[in-house]
């Protein structure tokens, strides 16, 4: 008996092609079909940039975004640049200037279990700069002005039972602090790293994470600054073959927090996730930018950020970029951002961007939503005798709890639940 063409399953690089393969509207094996006829009736464009040859291959593409270690390659931003157009640059003047730290403006407390190696790395000493690729002026300035980076290494085949903690406490408002931390987990190692930021400072911090083949690594970054603190940072990770990596960013404190969180793959078979939670009050600007670089085949990624805002001048920004390169056949990727506005005047900007250069993928998608309470949820709770104030608090807690549960460290989860309760009491929600 001869199989029909529809029954045959040809594979290229391990991915089904031919009539049985998964098809994506507007996509071919060579990437996105940019013909006007194909895209004229599209429901939405990838990130609002449109579907044109010029945009896909031009300045709007992450493929062409400048990275490097020379400060001269990153002029001081004006606010007209794509990567800075949402950011209050005047409040970041201290951390964008090419300057050393003001003495010792922050205190580091490190708690590491048995088998963990804590040391430092000077410029040019591996594995410093293996994962980090400075992508804006803040990151390159921090990289240049830190002579000795904090280096925490978990050797191969080592499983650390307790979280490795680095508590960074700012000692004085406005004092400039440059920081560079390198976290490395060897082959088949397993560890949880917790970076907690407290106190007051003008903090510019890079974090790079090297995840060995088959390793299981989680990084939890807590921004719990005082109200007068400023924090900019770039967190980059390189994820090895068949490894698992999770990054969770929680931003509750600080006048301005701007965090770039990125990862790419060293080989195939890896699973990487990014989760974020932020709660902004009046006078706060909290900005998260994520970039998933699918640069090798058969890897998966998932990005989910959730935020709540209360107060007339509360401001949040989320910009999520996913780039699926031509070599990344078999990719499965998804990103989503959701924002809950609790009061009038609060503003949340949400920009998901998706670039696809190959049609041979398992799936890719993105979503974004910003709005007020679901009145049906409130009605359901109030109809069961719960007062409106408590009902609103339950809705917010339920909305954000999905991210808190991703932490999977009981002491941190309890602390964050208490912090959210305090936030909700500020405006009576």
UniProtKB/TrEMBL annotation:
Q: Which domain of life is it from?
A: Bacteria
Q: Give start-end positions of Polar residues composition bias.
A: 53-62
What is the protein name for this chain?
Answer: Fe-S cluster assembly protein SufD
Species whose genome carries this gene: Nesterenkonia rhizosphaerae
* Entry similarity comment: Belongs to the iron-sulfur cluster assembly SufBD family.
User: Pfam families annotated for this entry?
Assistant: SUFBD_core (PF01458)
Note the InterPro entries from the entry: Fe-S_cluster_assembly_SufBD (IPR055346), SUF_FeS_clus_asmbl_SufBD_core (IPR000825), SUF_FeS_clus_asmbl_SufBD_sf (IPR037284), SUF_FeS_clus_asmbl_SufD (IPR011542)
The SUF system FeS cluster assembly SufBD core domain is annotated at: 175-399
The membrane-spanning stretches of this chain are none
Cite the residue spans of the region called Disordered: 40-80
